[in-house]
Amino acid sequence: MTRLEAIAAGLIRWYQVHGRDLPWRRTTDPYRILISEIMLQQTQVERVLDFYYAFLNRFPTVRSLAAAKEAEVLDAWKGLGYYNRARNLHKTAIAIVRDHDGEFPRDLDALRSLPGIGRYTAGAIMSFAFCEDAPIVDTNVIRVLTRTLGEPENASGAEKERWLWEMAASIIPTGQGFILNQAIMDFGATLCTHHHPACDICLLSAHCERYARDTQAQPRLFDPSLALG
Predict the structure, then answer these.
(1) What is the pLDDT confidence band of residue 224, given thresholds at 50, 70 and 90?
(2) I want to staple 91 with a disulfide (CB 3.0 to 4.6 A). Which of 59, 115, 119, 150 is the partner?
């Protein structure tokens, strides 16, 4: 088993026991997943839970959202803030109905062409709705990858970003993008946290560059097989 395989297996084992039970994880409906992903941008999970079902009750399908007036959408979004998210979500619904007959495209590039959908959101829809092995990179994924694998030295911002997406793709076991992506996000959100990571109980500590650096006089070198290609 390679190091990446060991990390992936550990994340999945952890998630199967400790993963959060969230409503958008009980569906593969791309519309519901889109709503959750847009709401979760710049908003804590606990706050999104208060709005998710209310918004879906008002706009249960992509067609109902597309048919609504912008003022109605903004009213339903009231309290979540960052209202451009709601405006782009409305534009996305209109584009899906107008250009795709109300069906979400199952192609990454086609998804990314929709208003307000970037690489992360497109990957989330591909992974969580269509069960494709599409990588995702958010702040939690970045934290877990850079801590466990170490960061490439002297890399530019663009090189580091490319490395992150490559690692996020490489760590997915074939056919397990749905669970691995959920696992790594939850792991970063609840255990490998920004300020107080629970390193003393972490099952990935044997593979973690950050843990080795903090606990050994001579930290392990970055694995050249994981470096920029």
Answers:
(1) very low
(2) 115
